[in-house]
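Minutes, project check-in
Item: structure for the 162-residue chain
Input as provided by the requester:
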Amino acid sequence: MLNIVTYGDPVLTEKAQEIIAFDRELERIVIDMQDAMQRDHGIGLAAPQVGISKRLFLVGLDKEPLRIFVNPRIVAMSEETNEYEEGCLSFPGLYFTVVRPSAVDIEAFDIKGKPFRLSADGLLARVIQHEYDHLDGILFIDRVSPAKRRRALAHYSRMLNM
């Protein structure tokens, strides 16, 4: 069973490594990540969030099949942006409005190593960008102003000490 790591764990700020082997170990990691994501009521989860520095994330939106992105690469982003309140399983209880592109095109591999390309907008595009950031060591609080970031981290620290 994998557990979600929280802010302060160094794996969350490291650039994740490419996945080379599409094997049973990768399948096991995906199953364990899906369990962790569902257990903590998430809609997306990146491997670094469970302490695994690999370029892998899952997206599980309601009423849609689980999407698995291995070695993803965002290849295009819309100029149009939108604001939306985001949370993160690695920052339980913390939510902030984040501005992101409204749509993205992403290329990745599925769990068997087959390449695919996906154009996404709306919530799916947002979750993809949020999880993709995790693979580069970028946290959602890095996407807000420095003043909001300081307040967020202070608030988060107080929440942990309650």
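Outcome recorded: The chain has one domain: 10-160.
No further action items on this chain.
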